[in-house]
Write a structure and sequence with these properties.
Layout (H helix, E strand, L loop, with lengths): L1 H27 L3 H4 E2 L4 H17 L2 H6 L1 E8 L9 H14 E16 L6 E14 L5 E13 L2 E9 L1 H7 L11 H18 L3 H5 L9 E5 L5 E4 L1 H14 L7 E12 L2 E11 L7 E12 L2 E11 L2
Parallel strand pairs: 2-6, 7-12
Antiparallel strand pairs: 1-3, 3-4, 4-5, 5-6, 7-8, 9-10, 10-11, 11-12
Protein name: DUF4440 domain-containing protein
Organism: Persicitalea jodogahamensis
Keywords: Signal
Length: 312
C-alpha cells in the first residue's frame, strides 16, 4: 500500500511541476504585438528605401550612397559575406555598365518597428519587380524581389535582398553544371536534345543553328529495310529549309534519350545514345541508335556528322 501511495505522490508532484513549467514557458513567450509595432516614422522610412532604389535604377549613385549609413551592411543570395556601402555601390555600377532601360514596377512597402532585442529599431519591407535590358544581346529581364531594410537617422543601416538567381541565370543563357559533370559533355547533351526538339517543332532556323556550316557535314541514315544512305551538307540545308514550310512533324510528338556516352577531346567530340520518339496518335514508340561527331567552333559545339540506325 505504501508503494502505491508513494507512486501516486510522485506522479502528482511530476504533474504539478509540468503545469508550473508550462505556465512559466507561456509567460516567457512574447506575443507578436509585444515585440513588433507599426512605426511612427513609417512614411519617412518608406521614402528612404524608395529613394534609394530609385537612385540605383536611375544611375544616380552619389544620391544612393548618401542614403546609406557609414556602417551599412548588405546581404543577398550568393553573398559570401556582407557588403559594405562602397561595395554595394560598386556592384551596382558594374550592373549599370551592362544594363539599360531600368525600372521598378508593382512596388509595395510595409514599415514596422521592433521594440527590443538585436533587431531593435525601424524596418521597412519592400516588394516589386525590377526590369532591365541586357546591353549585350538585348535580353529583357524581369526580376521579382523582396528587400528588408533597417532604417536609422534617415539612412539605411542594413538590407537583406531576396530574389531568384536561377531565373536571371536562365534568361541570360547561363546554365548551372554540377561539379562532378564534365562541362563539355553537359553542353553537348543539351545541344543534341535541343536540336531534336527543334526538328519536332518544325523549326528549321533553330535546328540549323546546331549544325556546323562545313562542306563535309553529313547525316547517315539506315532505314527499316537496312538501306543506308548519306544526306549531304547541301541536302541538309534544303531539308531544313523545307522543314518550316512543310511541317512534317505532328504536334504532340515527344522524345526521350538514354544511354549517353559522350567523349570530348579538345575541339572534337563523339557522342552515342538512344533516342525514342513517342507519337500522339497511339503508334508504337520508335527507338533509334544515334551517334554524332561534333566540333567546337567559336566556343560552341556543332554537329558535323550524324548517324541514325533503327534499334532492333
Amino acid at each position: 500500500m505504501d508503494k502505491v501511495i508513494s507512486s501516486a505522490a510522485r506522479f502528482s508532484l511530476f504533474f504539478l511541476l509540468f503545469l508550473a513549467c508550462s505556465h512559466s514557458f507561456a509567460q516567457r513567450t512574447p506575443k507578436h504585438n509585444d515585440v513588433v509595432a507599426l512605426s511612427k516614422n513609417a512614411d519617412e522610412n518608406v521614402a528612404v528605401l524608395n529613394n534609394y532604389l530609385d537612385a540605383l535604377v536611375s544611375g544616380d549613385l552619389n544620391r544612393a550612397r548618401s542614403l546609406l549609413a557609414a556602417d551599412y551592411q548588405e546581404n543577398g543570395p550568393g553573398y559570401e559575406k556582407p557588403m559594405n556601402s562602397e561595395q554595394a555601390i560598386n556592384s551596382w555600377q558594374s550592373s549599370l555598365n551592362q544594363r539599360t532601360d531600368h525600372r521598378i514596377s508593382d512596388r509595395r512597402t510595409l514599415a514596422y518597428q521592433e521594440k527590443s532585442g538585436l533587431n531593435e529599431g525601424d524596418w521597412v519591407m519592400g516588394w516589386g519587380t525590377y526590369h532591365w535590358k541586357e546591353k549585350a544581346g538585348g535580353t529583357m529581364i524581369e526580376l521579382p524581389y523582396q528587400i528588408t531594410a533597417r532604417v536609422s537617422n534617415g539612412t539605411l543601416k542594413e538590407a537583406r535582398y531576396y530574389y531568384d538567381r536561377a531565373t536571371v541565370r536562365d534568361k541570360m543563357g547561363y546554365v548551372a553544371i554540377p561539379p562532378e559533370v564534365d562541362p563539355d559533355a553537359y553542353m553537348i547533351r543539351k545541344m543534341l536534345e535541343a536540336e531534336t526538339q527543334a526538328w519536332l517543332n518544325n523549326d528549321g532556323k533553330t535546328m540549323v543553328s546546331y549544325w556546323a556550316d562545313l562542306p563535309y557535314a553529313a547525316h547517315t541514315v539506315t532505314d527499316e529495310a537496312g538501306k543506308a544512305y548519306d544526306i549531304t551538307a547541301t541536302e541538309i540545308g534544303e531539308m531544313v529549309t523545307r522543314l518550316s514550310t512543310q511541317r512534317p512533324n505532328k504536334p504532340g510528338t515527344t522524345f526521350t534519350t538514354s544511354n549517353f556516352t559522350i567523349r570530348p577531346n579538345g575541339d572534337a567530340a563523339w557522342a552515342s545514345y538512344e533516342q525514342t520518339f513517342h507519337y500522339p496518335d497511339g503508334r508504337e514508340p520508335v527507338t533509334n541508335i544515334e551517334s554524332r561527331y561534333l566540333e567546337k567552333i567559336d566556343g560552341k559545339w556543332k554537329i558535323s556528322h550524324m548517324i541514325s540506325i533503327p534499334k532492333r
